[in-house]
Design goal:
CATH architecture of the largest domain in chain B: 3-Layer(aba) Sandwich
CATH topology of the largest domain in chain B: Peroxisomal Thiolase, Chain A, domain 1
Shape of chain A: globular
Radius of gyration of chain A: 23 Å
CATH superfamily of the largest domain in chain B: Thiolase/Chalcone synthase
Largest interface: A-B, 48 and 44 residues
Distance between the termini of chain A: 39 Å
Shape of chain B: globular
Strand content of chain B: 15-25%
Oligomer: heterodimer
CATH class of the largest domain in chain B: Alpha Beta
Strand order of the largest sheet of chain B: 3-2-4-7-1-8-11-10-9
Number of helices of chain A: 12
Radius of gyration of chain B: 20 Å
Distance between the termini of chain B: 21 Å
Structural class of chain A: alpha+beta
CATH architecture of the largest domain in chain A: 3-Layer(aba) Sandwich
Number of helices of chain B: 15
Strand order of the largest sheet of chain A: 5-4-6-7-1-8-13-12-11
Number of domains of chain B: 2
């Protein structure tokens, strides 16, 4: 049996109320008042599509063996590198095997996530691969006072495909590929360029998704009555509803488009919605998934008995439930680099990141992999040639030790106003990990007034540097203080 | 069997510039200013210098690499000059080089000079650290600054002893008030205005829980020393000879950051001070040390250091501080010249500046700040960060041989 063996998601913790955007920007473009309801998920200043992809991948891989991955497919239209395998960075962050694993980017189209899922399924079906992780993520910058700013949210989802412990069996797929352009982003351009809404709604989503669904049903001789949940994106909520009505689908069997609580997460959205649907699925439920963009991909799954005992680590719903309101539009605009604020001369320092040093330290920096001394058993970070325990100091007697998924506690910390930061004060401190080991790291997703010595932390892969001159984005792990728990 | 440095080397002369925002002076100007005072004090001619050591830290904004800057600025007579750099211990490292050279018998008379020109970068605080930590660490180190790095220690200390952070802040405020009072008496100090505890506690937050008045001055300056053997010093007609009793250095090996550490003390200082007392023949530092100049880059550093120097018991530094034990009129006056807090902190010069004050005090030349009959003066530098640092300790005293 081939199908989904795990799934997870990541929605960043900040929410921007659409009313906040209206209050700040309707003077410029009053039309946005028409969609003033609800809120959208917004990435923190140190998050991007790649960091969110890693978070979703960890959510999906909790309890699964990351060493067993032989395929890592990353889908996004907002990848940090045009020429450097972004999926390779995700693979390194997962400390996945380098040998025998294929990492690949799927990009340039919002249905790249479903296309990547099809490729993963085909690889597993063919017997060429055993465990392929598909991660889809988008963090799309938008111009101020646009409908895109109202509709787009940030998020990621990850689905693991394999043959063992299948929780949703693959039942078929269908693709419609055509050069229908509702919006595009030209090479080297910062923002999407979109055609008028009526075109996108009526000729795009409204026609192409139903056509693809009909094509799928015809191919497999199925009818919609067989389907328990239909999952398709469309950020126009009325059109989203109209598509179901046109196909004769009971609204109760249509997966919510998350417009009100998350916004449209682009390439990630079909998989984010799928992950949300899987959380509710019962054995025997059939799920039809559509991805939209220059055509439409359709995939069909049927939940197995195994889905009953399965819960994702935090999942899409868990992330949607733990949220903090971002109540400053200026802060949101600064986080997205839409406005210029002075970082001070101290913030100008801009040495290049050493690619050679990164290669040597790739496990440590991207995977947050430390070492454990095989003589004395001491876990330690950063990895050094000799054991740190004074009574041991053995040289070269180490095995890898993953800190990324280890919980820890804050031993000491500060909130630094002198450090150049997009979101001052820069919080950082020394963290001691359950099971041993320490690390001196930045903190993120916290208010300094709530941070205390002894507080639990979880580690999170984040953007650490963004070199505007050389176009380089650097990543490392930060500690997230668990304020609520 | 090594016998230590005690009484093998004497200070022949010292010099120190006024520290401060010396906008119109180059590092070369500052070196010459300190040197001229020093060589006049020593009463020798430049050609009698046989070797020299230069201490600087941030070379990239300062005098550049190598010791050529000192050799050229001072027009030294083509002698051996060596640049040393070990974060905030750089000045003491220059002194150690010269002292050890004389003690070895390789030279009779040697110079140690430290200088730092910090106010050429266009922003407050120390220069940013990207060039100081190396390309490997640049890939993962937190976005830290000096105040942030030391501020962490306050949260660690409060947690270890179960104190409210405000109690720690109060003792920290007393430290700064005391140093400002001392600095006001020192014509060479950068910051010369007394402050109140309330002003310190109300100052703007720099790095939680450190406010502006918990942070030392960022200054330009230079200090230097000429050293020789006690015998030569005596033959040159010197009286009230001050000799080196101990010079110790201890560096972190990664245990604080990666293994076992309470986050409430300096491992290096604890070790270096024990070794220094042994080298100097001091049994009970709380009773025998007459005065100290410690590395008060931040008030919390001074607070914790009082325990690591084995003067205050563990957890008791706040009580000693609030009792006035370290005030100028207290049992062990600390930062009599104003400290880094008010004299200022041109990094490469700081260790030598501390020795300068001890030297003046031991010779009874400290003017308004003069203490009564001091015997041993201790200097202490702490470079880097609480979780990885370089600590140097010097003890000087009257030559009783």
């Amino acid at each position: 049996m081939v199908g989904i063996t795990s799934y997870g998601g990541y929605i960043p913790r900040y929410r921007v109320s659409r009313m906040l955007i209206v209050q700040n920007m309707a003077w410029y473009f009053p039309v946005i008042m028409a969609v003033a309801g609800g809120e959208k998920a917004v990435a923190n200043w140190d998050e991007d599509s790649l960091s969110m992809a890693v978070a979703a991948a960890y959510d999906c891989m909790a309890g699964k063996d990351r060493r067993a991955l032989d395929g890592i497919y990353l889908a996004s239209t907002t990848l940090p590198f045009a020429d450097r395998l972004n999926a390779g960075i995700v693979a390194a962050a997962l400390n996945a095997p380098e040998h025998g694993a294929t990492a690949a980017d799927f990009s340039s189209c919002l249905k790249a996530g479903t296309t990547a899922a099809m490729a993963a399924i085909e690889a597993v079906q063919s017997g060429q691969k055993n465990n392929v992780l598909v991660v889809a993520s988008d963090q799309r910058r938008t111009k101020m006072a646009t409908m895109f700013e109202m509709f787009y949210g940030d998020g990621a989802a990850a689905i693991l495909f394999g043959r063992d412990e299948v929780i949703a069996e693959f039942k078929g797929s269908y693709s419609l590929s055509c050069d229908f352009v509702d919006h595009y982003k030209g090479y080297g351009k910062e923002f999407d360029y979109g055609w008028e809404e009526r075109w996108v709604r009526d000729e795009g989503y409204g026609k192409i998704i139903p056509e693809a669904i009909r094509g799928f049903l015809k191919k497999y001789g199925m009818n919609l009555a067989d389907i328990g949940k239909v999952v398709y994106p469309c950020y126009f909520t009325t059109t989203h509803r109209a598509i179901a009505k046109g196909l004769g689908i009971d609204p109760a069997r249509v997966q919510d488009n998350l417009h009100n609580i998350c916004g449209d997460t682009g390439t990630a959205h079909p998989l984010v919605m799928l992950a949300a649907a899987l959380e509710q699925a019962k054995p025997g439920d059939k799920i039809l998934l559509a991805g939209f963009g220059q055509g439409c991909d359709i995939l069909c799954f049927e939940a197995t008995e195994k889905i009953a005992g399965f819960t994702p680590a935090k999942g899409v719903s868990g992330h949607l439930a733990s949220k903090v309101d971002l109540t400053s539009y200026q802060k949101f605009a600064k986080f997205r680099d839409l406005i210029v604020a002075d970082l001070g001369i101290r913030g100008e320092a801009n040495p290049n990141a050493s690619l050679t040093a990164l290669w040597r330290k790739r496990k440590m920096v991207l995977g947050f992999v430390g070492v454990k001394c095989t003589r004395c058993g001491t876990p330690q970070f950063p990895p050094m040639p000799m054991c740190v325990k004074p009574e041991c100091n053995a040289a070269g007697a180490f095995e890898d030790y993953e800190f990324a998924d280890k919980p820890g506690k804050i031993q000491m910390f500060t909130g630094d106003m002198l450090s150049p930061s997009v979101d001052p004060p820069a919080a950082y401190g020394l963290v001691t990990f359950d099971g041993g080991g320490k690390a001196f790291v930045d903190f993120t997703d916290c208010e300094i007034s709530q941070v205390k010595v002894g507080m639990q932390v979880k580690m999170s892969f984040r953007r650490r540097s963004k070199d505007q001159v050389r176009g380089y984005t650097g990543y490392f792990w930060k500690a997230v203080p668990q304020v609520a728990g | 069997m090594a016998s230590g440095i005690r009484d093998k080397v004497a200070i022949l002369g010292m010099g120190c510039t006024r520290f401060g925002e010396r906008w119109n002076d180059s590092p070369e100007d500052l070196m010459v200013e300190a040197f001229q005072e020093c060589i006049a004090d020593a009463g020798i001619e430049k050609k009698q210098l046989q070797a020299a050591w230069l201490g600087t830290c941030f070379d990239e904004i300062n005098v550049g690499k190598s010791a050529l800057s000192a050799s050229i600025a001072l027009r030294l007579p083509n002698i051996a000059v060596t640049r040393v750099e070990n974060f905030c211990a750089s000045g003491t490292e220059a002194f150690r080089g010269a002292v050890y050279a004389v003690a070895s018998g390789a030279y009779d008379i040697a110079l140690a000079i430290g200088v730092e020109k910090l106010k050429d970068i266009g922003y407050g605080g120390l220069p940013e650290f990207s060039s100081a930590i190396g390309v490997g660490n640049s890939l993962w180190f937190p976005n830290l600054t000096a105040p942030g790095g030391f501020a962490m220690l306050a949260t660690g200390y409060a947690a270890k002893y179960g104190l409210d952070i405000q109690e720690v802040k109060k003792a920290m405020a007393h430290i700064s008030v005391k140093s400002h009072a001392n600095g006001a008496l020192n014509p060479k100090a950068h910051l010369r205005k007394p402050v109140t505890e309330e002003q310190v506690l109300m100052s703007p937050m720099i790095a939680f829980p450190l406010g502006l008045f918990d942070c030392c001055g960022v200054s330009d300056g230079s200090a230097c020393a000429i050293v020789t053997t006690p015998e030569i010093a005596r033959s040159l007609g010197k009286k009230d000879i001050v000799t080196v009793k101990a010079l110790q250095l201890a560096l972190s090996n990664g245990t604080e950051m990666s293994y076992d550490w309470d986050g409430a003390h300096f491992v290096t200082t604890t070790r270096a001070s024990t070794a220094a007392y042994e080298e100097a023949g001091i049994k009970n530092p709380r009773e025998e040390i007459s005065m100290m100049e410690v590395h008060d880059c931040f008030s919390i550093t001074e607070l914790v250091t009082m325990e690591d120097l084995h003067i205050s018991e563990r957890g008791k530094a706040p009580a000693d501080i609030m009792d006035g034990f370290y005030d100028r009129g207290g049992r062990v006056p600390c930062q009599v010249d104003g400290g880094l807090k008010c004299f200022g902190h041109p990094i490469g010069a700081s260790g030598l500046r501390m020795l300068y004050e001890m030297y003046l005090q031991l010779q009874g030349r400290a003017g308004e700040r003069q203490l009564g009959n001091p015997r041993y003066g201790l200097t202490h530098n702490l470079g880097g960060f609480p979780m990885m640092n370089v600590c140097s300790i010097g003890i000087v005293g009257r030559y009783e041989g």
